[in-house]
């Protein structure tokens, strides 16, 4: 463990997130979302995993294993597809650009509370946007049972 990791752990209780661990946590969150296996999840690629390494952020892992397919989209591509600055046209443009896609998700960095359950508790938030008056934000708490990550609690933060 590096000195910066140790300082971060002691001050903030946040641990580094290896890509495999991050992929498993995000899969647990995304796997519990409503929809059918044939629905494609549109995931904003500017989501990131926090680390305490120099450079600070890493891209969202691509190895998220789900029954549903995942399509990654950049923040710029999403902004362009929504036609921001053109009132009333946002979701019409989105639906033309991404036919069959119901909306998009953005995930927060993963944080761990090392002082609680020895790093077996993780926290993630997500946003779901599906229309002008459609969407939600949730805070998810996950626990690790030694084999898998499980959603222990899901709390609504906002609804549109």
Report on the architecture of this protein.
It is a single chain. With 160 residues, this protein is α+β, with helices and mostly antiparallel strands. The protein has one domain. The chain has 4 helices and 9 strands. Strand 2 (48-50) and strand 3 (57-59) form a beta hairpin. It is elongated. It starts with a helix and ends with a strand. The model is unreliable at 1-16 and 49-55 (pLDDT under 50).
* Uncertain ranges: 1-16, 49-55
- First and last CA, distance: 43 Å
Please indicate the percent range of residues in DSSP E strands (runs of 2 or more): 25-35%
Q: What is the overall silhouette?
A: elongated
**Overall pLDDT confidence:** 76
Put simply, the count of helices is 4
Task: State the domain count.
Answer: 1
Radius of gyration, taken over Cα atoms and rounded to an integer in Å? 17 Å
Main pleated sheet: 7 strands, mixed
Amount of helix:
10-25%
User: SSE order in H/E notation?
Assistant: HHEEEEHHEEEEE
- For the secondary structure, the number of strands is 9
| Secondary structure category | alpha+beta
Outline:
This protein has 160 residues and is an alpha+beta fold. The protein is 24% helix and 33% strand. The model is unreliable at 1-16 and 49-55 (pLDDT under 50).
Lay out the secondary structure.
Elements: H1 3-12, H2 19-31, E1 41-44, E2 48-50, E3 57-59, E4 70-73, H3 75-82, H4 90-97, E5 104-107, E6 111-112, E7 121-131, E8 134-144, E9 149-159
């Amino acid at each position: 463990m590096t000195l910066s990791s140790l300082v971060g752990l002691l001050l903030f209780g946040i641990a580094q997130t290896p890509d495999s661990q991050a992929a498993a946590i995000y899969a647990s969150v995304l796997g519990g979302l409503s929809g059918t296996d044939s629905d494609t999840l549109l995931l904003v690629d500017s989501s990131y995993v926090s680390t305490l390494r120099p450079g600070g952020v890493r891209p969202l892992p691509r190895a998220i294993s789900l029954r549903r397919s995942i399509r990654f989209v950049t923040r710029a591509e999403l902004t362009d597809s929504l036609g921001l600055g053109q009132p009333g046209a946002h979701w019409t443009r989105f639906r033309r650009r991404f036919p069959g896609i119901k909306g998009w998700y953005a995930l927060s960095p993963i944080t761990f509370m090392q002082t609680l359950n020895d790093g077996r508790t993780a926290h993630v938030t997500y946003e779901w946007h599906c229309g002008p008056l459609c969407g939600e934000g949730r805070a998810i708490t996950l626990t690790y049972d030694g084999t898998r990550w499980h959603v222990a609690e899901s709390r609504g933060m906002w609804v549109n």
